[in-house]
Write a structure and sequence with these properties.
2 strands; mainly alpha; elongated; two-stranded antiparallel sheet; 293 residues
Length: 293
């Protein structure tokens, strides 16, 4: 069945489920961040996407949409709660085994429960992806080693961040304890490390230094009193500053020759952000950004 939507300039009548489905299309599978393969890495574009979804959350009075406009701690908390509930209800033998051993670990470990929870989620995600259909005992007793935990997180996040370094350390401690538990149960069973000391050292060396300065700083939010001026500037289009500045040009190949053309997509998104019913300001997210013209 083909569904047609009539463009009316209003979201009235558009089902909330449809809005959620569209937004989720532009989020990563884990729900924690925006898809860079769609938006690229421009902080301005990502901020525009966030502002649009935040505005929709206010229009629909739906706080779950607000979570999908976020990255970092706020998104992580909501997603983690949902995933943890799913894990506790799972019948997957690997999930049950890891959760059981994690509970045993927490009885004597100094690892904070919230840290152990996130480490467990990342560990299970890696094991299920890399060793499908195998139990933890089978994985640890096998010599098979394909994608390392560090590479798994790096591919998911994009680089070796401080988060990756911390998770590798936590998961290493958990895996070592799990191996000890299995050895106590089956002393004759030969086990092989999943996360070596060499991998830990290499991950630490590749990650950000403890005193490394950030590559950028958060900017002040655009004052609301300047919105009208911004609208007028952006409204000038191709014949005004947006078109003449060259900031919004794209390159196209026509008849074998590269030519530059003005693309109104980003200016339009920026202008839309000034009309949404929200205060555009700095958020304490994983990557604080600002609305900058």
């Amino acid at each position: 069945m083909k569904v047609q939507w009539q463009v009316t300039g209003s979201v009235d009548g558009v089902p909330l489920e449809f809005i959620h489905a569209v937004v989720e299309t532009y989020r990563t599978d884990d729900g924690l961040r925006w898809r860079t393969d769609v938006f690229g890495k421009s902080e301005v574009v990502l901020q525009c996407a966030k502002n649009i979804v935040t505005g929709l959350s206010k229009i629909y009075d739906d706080p779950t949409l607000l979570v999908k406009a976020s990255v970092g701690r706020r998104a992580s908390s909501a997603v983690k709660t949902r995933l943890w509930t799913q894990l506790e209800q799972s019948n997957d033998p690997l999930v049950k085994e890891v959760l059981s051993r994690r509970d045993l670990l927490l009885q004597s470990s100094r690892i904070a429960p919230d840290k152990a929870a996130q480490a467990t989620l990342d560990l299970l995600s890696w094991l299920q992806s890399t060793y499908p259909g195998m139990s933890l005992r089978e994985i640890l007793s096998s010599r098979l080693r394909t994608v390392s935990f560090t590479d798994f997180l790096k591919d998911r996040i994009g680089s070796i961040t401080s988060y990756v370094v911390a998770q590798v350390i936590y998961v290493k401690r958990m895996l070592d304890e799990f191996a000890n538990q299995i050895s106590d149960e089956s002393p004759a069973l030969m086990l092989y490390t999943l996360l070596s000391d060499a991998e830990i050292a290499l991950t630490k060396a590749s990650g950000p230094g403890p005193n490394k300065k950030p590559s950028s700083v958060g900017s002040r939010p655009l004052p609301v009193k300047l919105f009208q001026i911004v609208r007028e500037i952006l409204g000038e289009g191709e014949q005004g500053w947006p078109g003449q500045s060259g900031h919004f040009n794209v390159e196209l190949t026509i008849d074998g020759k590269i030519a530059q053309f003005y693309c109104p997509v980003i200016p339009t998104l920026l202008e839309c952000a000034t009309y949404l019913p929200l205060r555009i300001g700095r958020e304490r997210d994983e990557h604080p950004t600002a609305f900058v013209c």
